Amino acid sequence: MLETNSPIQIIKYCIIPQIKVCICAVALFIFADMWNMVEQPMLYLNDNKFRNLLAFIVQVDNYNSEVLMPASVFFILPVFLFYLLFHDELKRGFKI
């Protein structure tokens, strides 16, 4: 007798492997977009200790110049690591 698959099994074994690259790309873009938010922290947060790193980098005139390079590297690092985590998926998806 033929056994029917549940919708969850169909999604898990048929659909997700096909769109894995798209999921990775969208996750990377969403993470980078959220990480790069500038306007929201500067508008809604009055206290500087709650603002994100990019809001700190934007106000570079108020801070010492020796702090800017490590802050910039620390700012780029999470997005770069997230890209390294998914770059194999992205390369496989972009092959024609």
From TrEMBL:
Keywords: Membrane, Transmembrane, Transmembrane helix. It is found in: Membrane. It comes from the Bacteria. It is a multi-pass membrane protein. The keyword Cell inner membrane does not apply. The chain crosses the membrane at residues 21-38, 67-86. This is Putative membrane protein. InterPro entries: MetI-like_sf (IPR035906). GO terms for cellular component: membrane. The keyword Calcium does not apply. SUPFAM superfamilies: MetI-like.
